[in-house]
């Protein structure tokens, strides 16, 4: 990608753990120069299965100490919720 100091070798491994967990392991190694990188997975699942419609009626439970809300354009607001909230 243009604008970064060096090249990266990136590897993503998806694996099943036990009978009900999916793990995603991501690794990036600089090839020719120290290069900052922050890898994230933005995976979306349709819990109803393939061709079952939209995900707009799904509920999700996140086990996190805080979350960052977004505005109507899905841009983070800079705030965070540190207590229990139902969005």
TrEMBL record:
Q: Name one GO biological process term.
A: galactose catabolic process via UDP-galactose, Leloir pathway
Entry protein name? Epimerase/racemase
Q: What is the lineage of its organism?
A: Eukaryota, Viridiplantae, Streptophyta, Embryophyta, Tracheophyta
- Signal sequence residues: none
Q: Which SUPFAM superfamilies match?
A: Galactose mutarotase-like (SSF74650)
Query: Which InterPro entries does the protein's record reference?
Result: Aldose_1/G6P_1-epimerase, Gal_mutarotase_sf_dom, GH-type_carb-bd
Q: Which residues cross the membrane?
A: none
A molecular-function term among this protein's GO annotations = carbohydrate binding
UniProt xrefs under Pfam families: Aldose_epim
